[in-house]
Amino acid sequence: MKGNKTCTVDTHRISVFTAQTTICEMQSHTFTCTGNKVMHITNVLWGRLPPSPASLCNPFNSNVTGANCQGGRTATLYAEKLCNGNPSCTVTNDWQQLGADPCKGVPKYLQVSYACIIPTTTSKTTVPMTLSTTVIQVCGIDSN
Fold first, then answer.
1. pTM of the complete model
2. Is 85 left (phi over 0), alpha (psi -120 to 50) or beta?
3. Class for domain 13-121, per CATH?
4. What share of the chain in percent tops pLDDT 90?
């Protein structure tokens, strides 16, 4: 194949600052990035995984021995919608927003991992066809 690949690249520079916060049921947490940085959600877990201490987000001291459950992608989409691209956001561990209950009767927590990034502009770049497979799958073919 001859020609060039034209890619639209959304470039972000990840800052050194990354963090994870645990939010108990019906509690909220406000995430804030300083400077000109914005939020980028890197991982979300809603549920309860071992070896979580029994006291973690367990206000009624329920039996959580052997609890091993996590919700689906809905929790991640919820946090991403609220936070990604914003300098701050407030996330609530609200089962009505997080999807199907992964373990009924077990107290769950919401763990949100994020990075504060410096957004830059989106640009078009034309590059030779000798790119790695990963980049070729992202780019469209320019037949010039």
1. 0.72
2. left
3. mainly beta
4. 62
